[in-house]
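Lecture notes, continued. The same structure-token format from the folding unit now serves as the input rather than the output. Read the line below as a description of shape only.
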């Protein structure tokens, strides 16, 4: 009888432990200050709108900071806790210069592209040789493949413009042969199909290049690991919703941005425009290596311990917990995310 009671007690304790899930965890801090660019962040918008963040006890306050330099400086001085729309090169440059950032995830995985006047065509990266390219030499998904093909950066005439709209205008006017553009111009490019064509997507040149990373100050990550993990869980759920409910996601984001649904759908429903929370560590390191080769990092950065500033553990914990808790809701999505993480981070 005593053995039976003892066994029952063990079972009750085990069941109680099982019933305590990660969903019962409390974030160390409830509020996160997020640097918001003009285009916003669709995953943050969906995580807010669908109540995922609230479910985990987290509130994100989006703080408008349009300039990448302003956003990086605000993160460095701890005026904001997260940046996500400022590319990959920008945070890496700040990190190499001494800013103590940690990359914990991502926002845009891919979505940039090269345009030219209609009829120009495209056979490969060698087409840029001797041509005028409207983008910066720091555009690693262009310069990396160019170097890998045996060319020099000096083989291309680089033209610098302050905005994507200016780069597009340069191609239309014939001032540039090619231009690199971002997803938010897809609606406009689509309306210029008699004049302009997309000749290559960034992902064609550098697969899963990791367009925009999710960066935090290292002190914040160390002090608030549960907060970071729960935020990542909310964003992964938003990513799943975006993929399974594209039309509804368009409506939600269009309302958030006060933009037309046609404008938002032009990029959000384009298969080459892919938001993803995955950190893609391999791509970050590849970008760092290209920046070293092209002189956009100081020589002493060769000794920088980049791996110490890429935290994939919190994302993996978030994903593993969601697989345990919610895989049945969308097995294909979660299985693909697990496989993608292994291929791009381990």
């Amino acid at each position: 009888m005593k053995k039976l009671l003892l066994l029952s007690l063990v079972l009750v304790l085990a069941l109680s432990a099982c019933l305590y899930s990660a969903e019962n965890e409390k974030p160390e801090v409830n509020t996160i200050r997020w640097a918001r660019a003009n285009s916003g962040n669709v995953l943050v918008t969906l995580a807010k709108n669908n109540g995922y963040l609230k479910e985990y006890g987290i509130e994100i306050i989006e703080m408008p900071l349009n300039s990448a330099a302003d956003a990086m400086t605000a993160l460095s001085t701890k005026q904001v806790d997260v940046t996500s729309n400022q590319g990959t090169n920008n945070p890496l440059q700040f990190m190499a210069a001494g800013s103590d950032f940690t990359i914990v995830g991502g926002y845009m995985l891919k979505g940039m592209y090269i345009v030219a006047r209609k009829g120009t065509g495209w056979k490969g990266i060698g087409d840029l040789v001797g041509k005028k390219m409207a983008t910066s030499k720091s555009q690693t998904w262009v310069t990396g493949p160019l170097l890998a093909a045996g060319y020099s950066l000096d083989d291309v005439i680089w033209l610098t413009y302050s905005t994507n709209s200016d780069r597009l205008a340069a191609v239309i006017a014939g001032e540039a042969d090619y231009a690199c553009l971002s997803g938010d111009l897809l609606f406009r490019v689509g309306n210029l199909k008699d004049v302009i064509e997309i000749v290559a997507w960034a992902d064609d040149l550098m697969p899963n290049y990791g367009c925009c990373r999710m960066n935090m100050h290292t002190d914040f990550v160390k002090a608030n690991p549960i907060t970071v993990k729960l935020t990542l869980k909310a964003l992964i759920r938003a990513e799943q919703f975006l993929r399974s409910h594209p039309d509804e996601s368009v409506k939600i984001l269009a309302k958030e941005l006060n933009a037309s649904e046609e404008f938002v759908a032009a990029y959000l429903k384009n298969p080459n425009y892919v938001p993803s929370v995955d950190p893609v560590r391999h791509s970050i390191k590849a970008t760092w290596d290209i920046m070293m080769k092209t002189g956009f990092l100081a020589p002493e950065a060769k000794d920088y311990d980049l791996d110490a500033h890429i935290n994939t553990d919190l994302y993996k914990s978030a994903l593993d917990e969601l697989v345990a808790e919610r895989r049945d809701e969308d097995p294909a999505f979660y299985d693909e995310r697990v496989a993608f993480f292994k291929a791009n981070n381990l």
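Point for the exam: The chain has a mean pLDDT of 93.
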